[in-house]
Amino acid sequence: MDLQLPKSEYPRVVIIGGGFGGIELAKRLKNKPFQVVMLDKHNYHTFQPLLYQVATGGLEPDSIAFPLRKIFRAQKNFIFRVTKVTDVLASENALLTDIGKINYDYLVIATGSTSNFFGNKEIEENSMPMKSIPEALDLRSMILQNFEKSLIEKDADKKSALLNFVVVGGGPTGVETAGAIAELKRHVVPNDYPELDLNKVHIYLIENSPELLGVMSVQAQTKAKDFLVEMGVNVMNSTRVLGYDGHTLTLQDKPIILTSSVIWSAGVKGEVIPGLDLAEIVRGGRLKTDQQNLIVGYPNIYAIGDVAAIITEATPNGHPGVAPAAIQQGNLLAKNLVNLVSNKPLENFKYFDKGSMATVGRNKAVVDIGKIRFQGVFAWFTWMFVHLMTLVGFRNKIIVFINWVWSYFSYDRGARLIIRTFAKDRSIDYQTDDVASVKEVKTL
Amino acid sequence: MDLQLPKSEYPRVVIIGGGFGGIELAKRLKNKPFQVVMLDKHNYHTFQPLLYQVATGGLEPDSIAFPLRKIFRAQKNFIFRVTKVTDVLASENALLTDIGKINYDYLVIATGSTSNFFGNKEIEENSMPMKSIPEALDLRSMILQNFEKSLIEKDADKKSALLNFVVVGGGPTGVETAGAIAELKRHVVPNDYPELDLNKVHIYLIENSPELLGVMSVQAQTKAKDFLVEMGVNVMNSTRVLGYDGHTLTLQDKPIILTSSVIWSAGVKGEVIPGLDLAEIVRGGRLKTDQQNLIVGYPNIYAIGDVAAIITEATPNGHPGVAPAAIQQGNLLAKNLVNLVSNKPLENFKYFDKGSMATVGRNKAVVDIGKIRFQGVFAWFTWMFVHLMTLVGFRNKIIVFINWVWSYFSYDRGARLIIRTFAKDRSIDYQTDDVASVKEVKTL
Q1: Which of B24, B60, B135, B176 is the catalytic position?
Q2: Was domain B121-266+362-426 assigned CATH 1.10.10.10?
Q3: Distance to chain A for B99, nearest Cα, Å
Q4: Nearest residue on chain A to B136, alpha-carbon basis
Q5: Which single residue of A18, A190, B25, B137 has CA 20 to 30 Å from B239?
Q6: Which residues contact B304 (CB under 8 A, 6 or more apart)?
């Protein structure tokens, strides 16, 4: 069944995904001769760089998300639908979705990335990813629930597992999450759980390669590790995770770790829509595009952001999966689409590297901007400033700012409600709400 | 299996429920010769008077809830456990819970109230209550989802049902919710859903009795109704709801209403724990107590707040189920317990009526304080001030204040994320998240 959309005299650009790339593209097409249709499975944009703060009780989910409809309030050529795309019918220039069939003139895949478990089903089943708001909320609930459960657990092994928190993956997300849990342990747990022996709470950060923050300078890598160690995190580099059954984490050539909490930030892969030619998927599950983000082999299907890989000699694996790359690609694609319909020459993508940064904890961050590298308090303020400025929405900026100021002076983290969105059953074995009344659970 | 709790030389007071009454009681027992054990199925206190603002996108859940452990950080004789009480074994002075058996010397039931469907299973199954944070979040998601779904619905009846919002019950919660939805319709929907015909969005407030806000002055009742009508709400007094199958709302002597959204605020009943003598349950499902909140027939089991009814000639149905009554009873019970163990005479409860108020919308509220009655802008500011002051936690006060100031100037409501906690299946029929990965869903 065809989905009825408002009619337009202009060609239709369908954008799948309201992340950084999709939003930039749609904005830049304002007042241009296109009908812009955005599809997303959520009704909001997620500011992914701050998800770990939601997961660790520092921020409310509403303050790092933004209703997509609101971003485009004043844009007349913009249409939004909450839906999940199930198939691309490239030969018909159409998409299948759970609300009907949608035709396009130009299709842009801006679906971002999802957690990569590298085919290990057991780890996928038992560990907690952190790529969306519901996942971050579940993680927050799990961490807090494990503290609650540790108080009533009599079995020593099980108790120890509840208090061992393992973060797998030493990229920015892993480093930031491990640091945030270390701060929870230091500033929140002693007050909230005076009965608990703090010496039994352990935080591990496990990374396959010999260094943390692979993409950053050696200086940043070393300092970040120093910060983490100083904060009490057990950093284990050159360590490979073999399996995790929900209770025992198995490592290569190292002793096992008993743990109820494995947070998986070891890798991402492009979130590819079914129906495209799989031959064009390269390393990291990304769609191979030319330098104008056109997917190789299709005349009118583009990919931008994390799901796209512009393969050139200089970028054999594509560009980094970060917000600035997505935004720059969205921006350029808008220009190129306008040029295309006005028969002007198209431009190739040039990535402007804005640098990279990661925060480890209070007054502790590392920043690389080109040749400029700094760490510590000033880096921390830089990190906060950049994230506040990038956050969508004035209200969100204020609320996040106040939460940060408040946390800075109180050493506290305010958002500690245990509210499950959806959960893997392992993480709760005592049941405290009227779930009997739930007939079927669905998450939008 | 007995739950192990820290040992104490003092008698143990077990409080079931971290609402207004339970918190007040526990606080007042600080540094007194008791061990205080609080049990709650959530790890947070819910500020119920503002739940409707969470349900209508005005506030984030985290800003009207407060971690219970944090309230009692500095209280050495306080122990908290997240659990659900399943039975009272009065003859053994013990409770059964889902984490084990707990003994008490004094038991205080402060479980509050739950939605009362007056035995109508069909309505219970299909309507949305709003007594907890997960329920308020589900309601928020349902309202927003129904707008999204209305855009793609082709069947005229179904479309009309999606855009008819019915609030049942004309007490403060019903009035406030209907008013908030009217403001959503007026200020948010036109911007977010430019494709939608606003004339098709209808809001109904249905009340059994001839007036709204039964407990308030005639002046307040009349003015509240005027405000609602002015804001476009169809107020239907003297109207009895007979049934609701999820699509058709049946009324006595009136035409049916097609609606996908029925919000149930027509009544509450005490949330009674199994195991107590049911003979002592009075009207509204409340536990009958003497004037010192001792449940009739038990030597050491008390009830305070919404779940309690102090039956005297002056109060044949007990006191109003409002925060001040619960707080005052908690306060007095603390004194009386201290007096009891020091063999001093006990005091009877005297209710100090602080007045009542309800907000209908921007600049529109009604306030009764004794003989003083006022309505409009000043009442609205009074309402906001009182609620801000009563809200637990400094950070919450600031965040709520900023949200209100921001909404006042922007006419917007910031928290519009669709995140389901648990859902009745009727409310979503298109599925947009990876629920396939959910093995079992539990809500804490």
Answers
A1: B176
A2: no
A3: 7
A4: A419
A5: B137
A6: B21, B22, B25, B108, B109, B110, B293, B326, B329, B330, B333
